[in-house]
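Dear Dr. L.,

I hope this message finds you well. Following up on our conversation about the binding site, I have prepared a predicted three-dimensional model of the protein together with nicotinamide-adenine-dinucleotide. For your records, I am including the exact sequence and ligand specification that went into the calculation, followed by the structure tokens. Please feel free to forward this to your student if that is useful.
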Amino acid sequence: MNRRSFLELTATAGALTLINSLEGWASVSPNKKIRAAIIGCGSVSNRYIPHLQSSDKIEIVSLCDIKLERAESQNKTYKVGAKTYRHIDEMLDGVPFDMMVTLTDMQNHGELNRKALLAGKHVWSEKPLANTYKEGKALVDLAKSKKLRIWGAPAVVNSPQFAFMSRLIQEGKLGRISSAHGQYGHTGPTWSAFFYEKGGGSMPDLGVYNMTTLTGLLGPARSIMAMTSIVNPERTVDDKGKIKVEAEDNAHLLLEHDKGVISHIMCGFNYFDPHGHEAENQTLHSIQIYGDYGNIRLIGYDWETNGVMVDTSWDKPPVLMSKDKGGYVWQEGATKTAESLLSNTEPLINVEHSLHVLEIIEAARKSSATGKKIKLKSTFPWPVIK
Ligand SMILES: NC(=O)c1ccc[n+]([C@@H]2O[C@H](COP(=O)([O-])OP(=O)(O)OC[C@H]3O[C@@H](n4cnc5c(N)ncnc54)[C@H](O)[C@@H]3O)[C@@H](O)[C@H]2O)c1
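The resulting structure of the complex is given below.
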């Protein structure tokens, strides 16, 4: 059996497992809404809560934060009407719910996600879904054994621009693909220390978007070489004042895909970017793909896409195509996966893909520390867009 058939078979098997597990679940709970419980009521919850509320198929029933006042304040600000908790154990023993949405410090994701799965809850996790590939794989195995689902951010494969780029590549419109580049950085979050502590870093916070996009477009990476560094050894952040930076704030990765394709990703917390997160009117590109018939550039970011510049002519200027966002927003992952639980459909976001990206992040650190090329063992159903 060749790799393609194997991947198709495993993808089908995955879909069947999903349908079997969801049929059982749906028959227990017919015509219901997904009851969501959010853990972590900090910065990103301001984007998640309204988006989850915009779906008539989802009800937020619980909000939890170790800083309880944050859960209470978000409950009030967004008129959620949820129960509020200080600790995950209280929340798991409290109002029943179907899916936990994990929005805490990234270092806590793995342990919190494990507790939720053990308690029989589906999980959507902000990135990364665990601290290590091993921990992430154990979560996915646990979910499968309990006929539950777990998914991890980001949601970049959902954008129409991702689909457009993927089709151009798959249909050979760019010719033979050889190289790609992705970049994402800014001057770093100012509110929380965890971004700079061990287990944080610019790769799981920022590089993860380009890693998902480029592996999603070009296929799983087979090996990696990387250099990471700490450029700014001290930071002042809102929650802890002056701190020592322990995780990389600067990273360059070289990924080897099949058929000789090589991609490069750079990400960091020391990039001057006057556009910051105001990405709506961004006209610069963040992703480039090179083939021998054509090149494409994703305008804006992969998390906020503004179109794809297509360059396929020797004598005509490049054309900005696929400008319609089709409603895609980066914070939609929890909403879309929750809705997929109800509709018994398989979302484009795939947890094996998140695990692959997690392995890349870990291997990049190892490559940088040892100066060696690191082979990757994980893969995921590809192409993402069929
Ligand atoms: N802020 C953004 O714009 C943004 C965008 C995309 C993704 N993310 C991701 O979202 C996650 C959270 O980021 P943030 O910026 O919202 O951080 P934040 O510091 O603003 O919020 C994190 C919250 O989690 C709470 N928390 C920590 N441990 C907890 C635990 N064990 N139980 C309950 N609550 C706990 C903290 O008290 C805090 O209120 C990170 O993984 C980050 O990478 C953030």
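In brief: Residues 159-330+345-375 form a domain with the Dihydrodipicolinate Reductase; domain 2 fold (CATH 3.30.360.10).

With kind regards,
A. P.
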